[in-house]
Amino acid sequence: MRDTPADIQARYRAMIQALSPEERLRMASGMFATAQTLVLAGARAGPAERRTRLFLAFYGREYPEAERQRILDALRASSA
Known about the structure:
Layout: H1 6-18, H2 21-40, H3 47-59, H4 65-77
Helix pairs in contact: 3-4
């Protein structure tokens, strides 16, 4: 779904392309850190649970169920 007018999309793209690679990397890193914070917001969990929540939120759909479960088991066992 695209609800942003084409001229605004073009202006935004030009603005991003005008940034230096370092500025774009800094911006992307900041967005990733914000996304992590949002995933963990309100979670009063230990380190293993935090890792599993982050894994599921960012990479969980990238793996078949059996592989995903193997990774989750390893994440949980790493702090046990």
